[in-house]
Amino acid sequence: MKVIIAGAGNVGTFIASDLKEEGHDVLLMEVEQAVADRVDPDLGIALLVGDACEVNTLYAAGMDDADVVVAATGDDEDNLVISLLAKQEFAVPRVVARVNHPKNRWLFTEAWGVDIAVSAPHLLSALVEEAVSVGAIVRLLQFEGSEAHLIEVTLADSSPAAGKTIEGLQLPRDASVVAVIRDSHVVVPRGDTILEVGNEVLVLVADESENLIRKLLVGP
Questions:
Q1: How far is CA 31 from CA 14, 15, 46, 57, 92, in A?
Q2: Within this chain, do residues 78 and 139 fall inside the same structural domain, yes or no?
Q3: pLDDT at 176
Q4: Does residue 125 belong to any structural domain of this protein?
Q5: What secondary structure letter does DSSP report for 42?
């Protein structure tokens, strides 16, 4: 897989190094020579010094045959421009963009060429909420370009689902229990799997059915 990463800071370099170790063809781009000079040559990562917001530079990088582009600079404006060019000019199949400022998260959508937006503050808050919330729905993952998302519910004593089988819940057709975590073990769900108080239930669901899932697993 050919991956082009824009931004040779700590984030971009780590991603490049990790993917390189996995055997992928990785190119790291950086506009500032001083930042590029700090990349350890022993990592063996191909490095191109140039502005990833310029079309000519992206052609020089070979973006026309890239499988994935990662916009990982420290500037949200640059990441949006890079994402838009990657998708519209080069039709890159997968564009991943880093969100530096949480308030800009709403901009990172398909309209700007972004398939997946990664915002560290949002991920951290979701993980904290997941860790402390019992009897409440926590959104773990939203699939860009789709109405589907992954939610997690830790069943409380008052949950109407406690003691019922998954089949007995009568889930809507656009929702599916994908995993049940019980006593730190993952239970692959079947129709006759009985849900218990304290179970963490992961559900893949369309936006329009989330309220119904809330009623089934949390209650009114």
A1: 17, 17, 14, 10, 21
A2: no
A3: 92
A4: no
A5: G
In angstroms, the CA 32 to CA 184 distance is: 46
Higher pLDDT among residues 176 and 138, named by residue: 176
Q: Which residues contact 87 (CB under 8 A, 6 or more apart)?
A: 95, 113, 114, 115
What are the structure tokens assigned to 125, written together? 């808050």
Q: Is 3 exposed, middle or buried (0-12, 13-18, 19+ CB in 10 A)?
A: buried
With cut-offs at 50, 70 and 90, classify the pLDDT of residue 132.
Answer: very low
Which of the residue ranges 73-82, 134-143, 209-218 has the most confident prediction, judged by mean pLDDT?
Answer: 73-82
**Taking the chain, what is the end-to-end CA distance rounded to the nearest angstrom?**
47
pLDDT tens sequence across 60-88 = 999 999 999 999 999 999 999 999 999 99
- Is 138 found in the same domain as 104? no
Residue the block writes with tokens 């990662």: 70
Q: Is 213:137 a contact under the CB 8 Å cutoff?
A: yes
The C-alpha atoms of residue 201 and residue 196 are separated, in whole angstroms, by 10
Point out the domain boundary residue: 119, 154, 183: 119
pTM for the predicted model, two decimal places: 0.61
pLDDT digits (tens, 9 = 90+) for 187-201: 888 999 999 998 989
Q: Kindly give, in sequence order, each residue whose CB lies less than 8 Å from that of residue 91, ignoring residues fewer than 6 positions away.
A: none
In a shared domain, residues 178 and 201: yes
Tokens standing for residue 76: 């949200």
Read off the amino acid at residue 142: Q
